[in-house]
Amino acid sequence: MAETAKADRGVVGLPPGPRMPRSLQLAYWALRPDVFLRRAARRYGSVFTLRLGMLGDAMIISDPALVKEVFTGDPAVLHAGSAAALLKPVVGRWSILLLDDEPHLSQRRLILPPFHGSRMEAYREIIRNVTSEAVSRWPRGKPVSLRPLMADITLDVVMQAIFGVSDDRQRPLRSALQRMLDQNAAGSALLITRLQRDLGRFSPWGRFLRARAIVDELLFEEIRMRRLVPDLDARQDVLSLLLQARHEDGTPMSDQELRDELVTLLVAGHETTASALSWVFELLFRSPEAYDRVVQEAREGDGFDFADAVIRESLRLRPIIPMVARRLTQPFQLGDFLIPAGAAVAPCILLVHRRPDLYPDPDEFRPERFLGRDPGTYDWLPFGGGMRRCVGASFALFEMRIVLQEILAATELRQASSRPEAVRARSITLVPQHGTRAIIGN
User: Fold this and answer.
1) pTM (2 d.p.)
2) Which H or E element spans position 267?
3) pLDDT tens digit sequence for 383-396
């Protein structure tokens, strides 16, 4: 950690934080990031420094005023892409998550249109049909983990709405994508660069590389075939729309760009949404009044206000990503600290969402917080913020609402365990430890 010294503008360097070695901080983070963050906040307040292997020295912030400074700061100084470099083995160098400056803006302009307004209506029936078919196959009357069931739904939605694959090519691509994601989430190699070594087909990194190679082969073949279809301009899936998009100089996206953005949309919109839905059910099971109310709304078909409030409150209480980061290209004044170039600043979604001055009784699940009001720009951050806010945020909320209402309208669910789910880290996301155990009725 950089040494701090007094200067005219405040403190030069990073604020204090846990003094344990880097390796121990990383281990603690990997096991229980929620506990680690909340304990550090209780001791050090709304700004402190963590020493994490994938970020280096990072100033963690949970003051909304400071969050606003980061999200509205100069993107040439606050690089989100370089701070997310640990994702490169999965998403690739052209991923919108890893780009900064003009390359990021250029790619964002191409990707954003398919997720705006009326475009999303084209996906409504896909999401409904996928959910209905999945629910009809669910096992009845015995305890199951909901998270894998939610993941099946969200992966099918990705395959059809994002990739536009719904024929006999779906099965091998679907299987390969799931295998790659499982290999990534199961090991620690993604987070620790020195473990990213191919030591053979049975080593964690070797298994991941081989799974990724199969995904790439299938995706490049799908892109090649899609370029040749005669009705490309009539298709509504995101891949077909991106194939028709053009950079400002008139050039189309390359095959590698398309591959990287498709995998990015998969990573950002499949397991994250599945985990978020699992948390929704976990919290509803322990709030019978809220559960009954959202079921009634779904079955009577009289809107979705309470379903939206449930989803927003769940994302507040159980955010899937605990924080977002920016790496500094030059010194940056943030509050009382002049942060050196090379360090990271990280608005902490989890800690902002637990501030009692923003959310009275912040540990309580109260969907009513979001009835009749929109979340604040800098106090509700499940999709990040500023110019780097997730391009698929609106799609994710849209999908979650449809899936939630379709499930509740079609079947009865009840909790399989009286013990609340603990938070577990899965790669860079926070998931229910046991996947939300439930018993599915008729």
Assistant:
1) 0.93
2) none
3) 999 999 999 999 99
